[in-house]
Design goal:
Elements: H1 2-24, H2 46-76, H3 83-107, H4 116-150, H5 155-158, H6 161-182, H7 184-188, E1 202-205, H8 206-246, H9 252-288, E2 293-296, H10 298-319, H11 324-334
Helix pairs in contact: 2-3, 2-10, 2-11, 3-4, 3-6, 3-10, 4-6, 4-8, 8-9, 9-10
């Protein structure tokens, strides 16, 4: 009787295992040896998976390379050691790390995290810090340009290298403290929101998400819009003043063309900065506040996170590529002329 019962138990286990394997057929486990606790890889068309890989890899590589060029340029050439360029350097450093961290997002494309809970927390924590520092540096750059254009006579006394260095340090320290509070739960208990082994989820409760929305999006974008609107008004006013003064000694038609170009340039600058910032950050914050308990995993938000990180790829284009000195420095870097003696003294400006 005991042997019969044992045989039936074994048979029942075999049937259960067979049913389980049929259920798992067509899907792969992140950790096949952990049959009951492992996460499953999402079933995606091969084309979609390859497209995500190519897109994220391209953005990651381009972000790292472009920002590394900015870092080398400003750090190496002495002529570029100015307060404004220090801000560009801080922005490039934060965006460079965003590019590197994006490689971890590529790892999550398959829906599996193979580096453990501690590395998951470290990845999330660093990603939030560097993106927050990037946004904060953008705001400081706006303030710098506001003072330079609207109060040019006081710029040299108000904006010094020491003050800029202090502002940059405060920006990074505030980002560190703020994101520590936002991600307090997962820092204290790594993996507490993971439902299975091989998962790395981004959890933000309603209060933390609201605070992040206010201080990482609403406040920065408000400051940027207000400052750039003021810059635009001042630029237009200066163009009109110049037109009225020169009208007496030159052709009115020529002055109108010059003033119109100045107005369009100011409008383009305002439009590029604000629109790019909104396009890249709005989708993430809209998704982040869709509910009380919000889980953002790579499977469901690859596009949103990709777009969020893409802002760091565009920053060097917006803030550096329009500078002639950057194009000159790229030539010297690519041709390895920066390895020559006294290359740091080269005339870049």
């Amino acid at each position: 009787m005991a042997e019969s019962f044992g045989h039936k138990a074994v048979r029942a286990q075999q049937i259960l295992l067979s049913v389980l394997m049929e259920t798992l057929e067509g899907s792969e486990l992140c950790f096949p040896q952990l049959l009951n606790t492992s996460c499953r890889k999402p079933v995606r068309p091969h084309f979609e998976t390859m497209l995500i890989y190519i897109l994220l890899s391209s953005i990651s590589l381009l972000t790292a390379v472009l920002n590394l060029l900015v870092i080398i340029s400003i750090s190496h050439f002495k002529q570029l050691h100015t307060p404004t360029n220090l801000l560009l350097l801080s922005l490039a450093v934060s965006d460079f790390f965003v590019g590197l961290l994006l490689f971890f997002q590529i790892m999550l494309t398959d829906g599996c995290w193979f580096f453990g809970d501690l590395m998951c927390v470290a990845y999330q924590y660093l990603a939030y810090i560097v993106t927050s520092a990037s946004v904060g540096t953008m705001v400081i750059i706006c303030v710098d340009r506001y003072v330079a254009i609207c109060h040019p006579l006081h710029y040299s006394t108000k904006v010094t290298q020491k003050r800029v260095q202090v502002c940059i340090c405060l920006c990074w320290i505030c980002s560190l403290i703020f994101q520590s509070l936002i991600l307090k739960d997962i820092i204290e208990q790594p993996g507490r929101y993971n439902s299975c082994i091989g998962e790395c989820v981004f959890f933000i409760n309603y209060i933390a998400g609201l605070a992040d929305l206010i201080f990482s999006f609403i406040v920065p974008i408000t400051i940027i819009v207000v400052l750039y609107m003021r810059i635009f008004v001042v630029a237009v006013s200066q163009a009109r003043t110049m037109r009225s003064h020169i009208a007496a000694v030159t052709l009115q038609k020529s002055v109108k063309v010059t003033a119109k170009k100045s107005e369009m340039k100011a409008a383009r600058t305002l439009g590029v900065v604000v629109v790019v910032f909104l396009i890249c950050l709005c989708p993430y914050y809209c998704v982040a506040l869709t509910g009380q308990d919000n889980f953002l995993n790579a499977s469901s938000s690859a596009f949103v996170i990709c777009l969020f990180f893409f802002n760091s790829c565009l920053n060097p284009m917006i803030y550096a590529f329009f500078y002639p000195w950057f194009r000159k420095s790229i030539k010297l870097i690519v041709t390895l002329k920066i390895l020559q003696p006294d290359s740091c003294e080269a005339n870049i400006l």
